[in-house]
Each structure stands twice: as structure tokens, then as C-alpha cells.
Amino acid sequence: MVKICIVDTTFARVDMARHAIDVLLNLMPGARIVRRTVPGIKDIPVEIKRLMKKEDCDAGMVFGWVGRTLNDKISYGVYSLAMQLVQLELEKHIIDVTVHEDEAESEEELYRIAVDRARKHAENLYLLLYRPDVLTERAGTGRRQGYPDAGPITW
Amino acid sequence: MVKICIVDTTFARVDMARHAIDVLLNLMPGARIVRRTVPGIKDIPVEIKRLMKKEDCDAGMVFGWVGRTLNDKISYGVYSLAMQLVQLELEKHIIDVTVHEDEAESEEELYRIAVDRARKHAENLYLLLYRPDVLTERAGTGRRQGYPDAGPITW
Amino acid sequence: MVKICIVDTTFARVDMARHAIDVLLNLMPGARIVRRTVPGIKDIPVEIKRLMKKEDCDAGMVFGWVGRTLNDKISYGVYSLAMQLVQLELEKHIIDVTVHEDEAESEEELYRIAVDRARKHAENLYLLLYRPDVLTERAGTGRRQGYPDAGPITW
Amino acid sequence: MVKICIVDTTFARVDMARHAIDVLLNLMPGARIVRRTVPGIKDIPVEIKRLMKKEDCDAGMVFGWVGRTLNDKISYGVYSLAMQLVQLELEKHIIDVTVHEDEAESEEELYRIAVDRARKHAENLYLLLYRPDVLTERAGTGRRQGYPDAGPITW
Amino acid sequence: MVKICIVDTTFARVDMARHAIDVLLNLMPGARIVRRTVPGIKDIPVEIKRLMKKEDCDAGMVFGWVGRTLNDKISYGVYSLAMQLVQLELEKHIIDVTVHEDEAESEEELYRIAVDRARKHAENLYLLLYRPDVLTERAGTGRRQGYPDAGPITW
């Protein structure tokens, strides 16, 4: 039985984890999901590290939401690096689903990006765990999450 | 009995820790608070690390204040990353309440942001420690500290 | 027998690993190649670390692809630093072949850069492993991957 | 007897350490000062780490000087983060007195900033070691080093 | 007998190591130099770490060369931080001689900067190892490598 740890935030404006859990349980009906929520992205790394260790999860997903200011960008860089440190120490994949508010002009578009990114990355986590061969078939093919695929460049 | 370590600075222009302690003791009347003050944000990480270890605190709060220049922004990024390292090593939450001087034009507004952020994050720390279920209910609902809540996006 | 670990992404728009493997096997016919593919660059460091340890590879190659936005640039910096941490911990070379979409205006040019960089860095890995003397002969001579050599400056 | 390790640079244009030592010995007549000088800020972290360990200093002071270019800013960020790593590993305060050349237009003003910052931070180090109560009294009062105090914001 | 480890790149457009070795052997005729060359700056940290450990060098020098684009700047920051990590772990000085292509408009000027910086930093390494007293005499005197000395500011 696979076990997935999930941490999201009250700062985010879309409940991305709900969509990801939906996909995860559809692809891995026997999976066990453990979920925690923290205030903002700077609280995620320590929470997911503790949770992964305490619950002995096989992999994780985290859901970030980042504002438009320079301060937000700096915080994103810090958060993102901390997530690398957690993954390198635990030696387990923790897929980061982050939406940046400057990715879209309208709330509708942000919502669409958030849901699409959460669902596609949930599928990616499944592939990492059970079907690495499918990922290798897709190597260099310009897959995107939150946007339409860019596709491969061929000449 | 829960024990909370707090570190703030003489650089900050608002005594945010006082407001946070007020909320913490209101929500957790039996809590013990240990507080230290350092000159600026670059002195916080080592102080809170030492204090958390020496006092065996369950969680921490730190209060930063950041100027408007590029040098200040760089220092904030460095400080913020060091705070991630401390949390990851101790495996305990240390909520960062930082006010950036470019968040507002007037001193009055900066003051309001600082107090609101300190008080709301004190409540967040209580929720992390005692009511994680409430945080998960609020997942993806666009909560803000220092500003009005952005609210969830729904379509 | 030398063993090379390779990790690339489904995000990339060119299958650079294929070109690198072609060069590696041409220069080192007895080499064993182990390859994995992950969604994006933020998933590479933990994957190559796990793979290098599990497969006991002598060296590695990773293939990144980075978009044009500020968010992409931040992610690249984070990814790049994590790759340094992996190399420093394992004490083995892992050559990073990253293409940035702002390196060229046309897809044709991006494709040309990607293939040239992958092939030349595959040769570099061979030189690091078997012919360090050739690299020292080339010290300070302005070699480039993805572009024509800049050449040495002499006066 | 308290022991203070000091590292400064030949790059800096003001002998800030001399002023800091003057204040330190005035406030702590029995203190022992150990001082080393390195070429530039990138050489400081390893030197102060070695010195603090070898001399078993109780605390440290480092004196940086940073130019106006983007390259200088990047180097400052790197230096500053390395200083955090040293402090977190040694669990001792090392106050960073850094002057940025873009802080002032004239050499006279830069000189004044450098001396004032060095002297005030030397006093801060004394307070950290012997009078933490005084620092807490000053919490949130807008103290500055190199500039006049900003003062507290009150409403 | 002192032993110095050196790593440079094939990316650089000037053979700076040659000039540095010339100075090192002039100042320390009995020194033993061990030199390796890697493709670019991102390959330097792991190479110098391995070399310093394998050869048990007393100190090191690395020679970087950085292009003009934002991608180059990010890579420089990452490289520079990794070099801090190596020094802090080994607790030995490794002087970084890096030339940035945006430091000069003409190739002639870049060449002059590169050679001057390499030679002066080779002297600096000698002073760090054998004459720390001379460095302290020069504290705060505005020494530069690659440019004329800025000199001390005095009022």
C-alpha cells in the first residue's frame, strides 16, 4: 500500500489538494493520503518533513500559492530551495504544485491553471511511483501542467 | 504545558512581539513564553536556534522588519533561508512575521499591517499546535495576515 | 566498466539525453547507461541522487529546460544549487545540460543549441573521466557548448 | 574572560575593526580580541569559522565592504548566507558589519556610515553578551546602525 | 612543504591559472601545485572538493569566467555559494578568481583584468598562508584585484 503525504496552505485561493487527491485515489485506489494545512509556503517545508517522517510516506505533494510582489518572489525562491533540501535529505519525491498570481490576469484563468496543474502533477506522481517507463517515453516532449503542452521541437 | 520561543529585533519599528504574546496567552493561558531581542534580522536565526534548544520550546515566532533597498531585499532572502534551515534541523514550526517597508506608503498603514500580521500569525501558531483540523478546513481559502483575506476563487 | 546515470524531463522540448547517450556510447563503448525521466527540473536533484546511489554510477548527466519568466529563472537557480549539493555530497561529477528558452528567438535555433550542448557535454564527461589532460590543454581557451567556441583572448 | 574573534578585509576602504575594537575594549575591559584580515568578503566565512573554533571565541564580528555592481550584490548575498551557516553551525553570534558603496554618494558619508555602524554594532555585541534585557527594552524601537535611529511607529 | 590545489575551466578565455602558478612558485619555491581543468564553473566545486581531499592540499585557487546574461549571473551565484560550502566543510581557504565579461567593454581590458586578478590573488593566498600580519596591516585600505587599488577613505 502506497502512502502519500500532502501539505497545502490557507493562503492559497484554490483548494488544489482536493483535486490532486481525487486523481491520486482514482489512479491508486489503495493509496493512503495524509494531509496537513499550514498558513503559507514558508511553513510547508518543516511540516512536510515532519509528516513524511512520522507517517513514513512514500512520496509527497505540496501546494504553494505566490503573490505578485518582489517580496513574494524572494519567499518563493526560499521555499523552493527548502523543498529541495527536504527531498534530498529524505530521498523521496515531493512534487511541488505552485501557482504564481502573475501567471494570469483573471481569477478564472488562475483557477483553471491551479486545478489543471494539481491534477496533472498528481498523475505525474503516480507515474514516478509506478510507471517510470511512461515518463521516459515522454522525455523531451514539452509536457506542461497548468497550460497546454508545448510539444517537442523537431527539425 | 506548551512553551513558545520568541525572537524580535531593535531594528523593527513596531513591537510586534507584544501583540503576538497577547494573543498567544489569550488562546493558550498556560503557555510559557521565552523572549529575546537581537539587533536585526541577520541575528535572529542563530538566536532562535540557541533559544529553542536551550529552552526546549515546542514552537517559535520571529519578527522581522525589512527596509526598501536592494540590499535589504538580499538580506531578507538570506534571513528567510536561514530560518528554513533552523526549522528543518529542529523539526519545529517557527512562524516568521516579517513586515517589509515597501508594503505601505504611510507609517500608519505599516503599523496596522504589523499588528494585524503579528496577531493573526499568533493565532496560526495556536492552530498549528492544537487545531490542525481548523487549518485544513481553511485550505485554499485565501487567508491573509496584515491584509484583508483574499478569499477563495471559485468557478 | 564505467556506469553513467542520466535524468531528464518531460518538460524539455528536445530529447537531449538521446543525443548525449549516442556520444557517450561512441566514446565509451563499454559504458552502462541508466536513465530516468521526471516531470520538471525541480524533480531532477532527488531523482539523480537516488539513482546515483542505487546504481552506484561513476558520474551523471542531467538535462534541464527553463522557460522565459522570472518564476522560471528562480526555479532554475534553485535547481542549479540543489545539483551542486548533490554533487558535493556524492563527490561525483554530474554535468548539467540546461537550455534556457531565452537563449534563442526561433525553435530551430533552440533545437540546434540543445543538441550541440548535449553532445559536447557528453564529450566533456568522457574527458573528465578518462582524459583530464586534454581538458587542461584546453584551459582558458573559451570553449562553448551550444554555441561556437569563443576562443582564447591573447595580447 | 570573554573572547571575541574579528575578521575584516583589505578590500574595505575604512578600518572598521579598529573602531569596533575600541568600543569593545571600552565596554569590556577584560575582553580578549583575536583579529585576522582576509582579501575580500568571500574569504571571511571560512576564516571566521576556523578562528572561532581554534581560539574558542564566545562571539565574533565581521566587517564587509560591497561594491555597486550586480556582481557585487550577488557576492554579498552569497557571503551573507555563508555567515548564517557559520553562525548556525557554531551556535554563536557573529555580528556582520557590512557597508555597501551604494549607501552614499560621497566618500565622507561612506566613512561616517562605516564608523558609526562598526561602533554601534560593537555595542550591540556587548548587549547580546551581557545585557540582553536592554535589547528587549529596545524591541521594536527602530534602532539603526550607520544612520540616525528611525524610531518606533506609534498610533 | 605547502601544497596548493587549482581548478580552472575550458570556458574561460584567459589561462589565468598559469599566471597564478607563476606567482605562487615565485613566492613559495617549494610549493607543490596540483591542477585540474573542468568545462565550466558549475563543475568546479565538486572537482576542487575531491582534489583537496585526495591530495590533502593546504589551500586552493579556483578560476571562474562568467558571461553577460541573467542566466550567467544566476549560475555565478550558485557556483559562488557552492564554493563557500566547500570551504566551510574543508575549513581551508580556496580563493576564487572570477572574471565577469561585463567588467569590461574590450577583450584587451578583460585580459588585463584577468591576469592582474589572478596574480594578485596568488599573492593573497601566499599572505594568508605565511604572512597574515601583512594582510592585517592592509586592513581597510581598499585593495583591489583586477583594478587599481581604491585606497582607504580618511577624514
TrEMBL record, chains A, B, C, D, E:
<comment type="pathway">
    <text>Cofactor biosynthesis; riboflavin biosynthesis; riboflavin from 2-hydroxy-3-oxobutyl phosphate and 5-amino-6-(D-ribitylamino)uracil: step 2/2.</text>
</comment>
<dbReference type="GO" id="GO:0004746">
    <property type="term" value="F:riboflavin synthase activity"/>
</dbReference>
<dbReference type="GO" id="GO:0009349">
    <property type="term" value="C:riboflavin synthase complex"/>
</dbReference>
<dbReference type="InterPro" id="IPR002180">
    <property type="entry name" value="LS/RS"/>
</dbReference>
<dbReference type="Pfam" id="PF00885">
    <property type="entry name" value="DMRL_synthase"/>
</dbReference>
<keyword id="KW-0808">Transferase</keyword>
<dbReference type="InterPro" id="IPR036467">
    <property type="entry name" value="LS/RS_sf"/>
</dbReference>
<dbReference type="InterPro" id="IPR006399">
    <property type="entry name" value="Ribfl_synth_arc"/>
</dbReference>
<protein>
    <recommendedName>
        <fullName>Riboflavin synthase</fullName>
        <ecNumber>2.5.1.9</ecNumber>
    </recommendedName>
</protein>
<comment type="similarity">
    <text>Belongs to the DMRL synthase family.</text>
</comment>
<dbReference type="GO" id="GO:0009231">
    <property type="term" value="P:riboflavin biosynthetic process"/>
</dbReference>
<keyword id="KW-0686">Riboflavin biosynthesis</keyword>
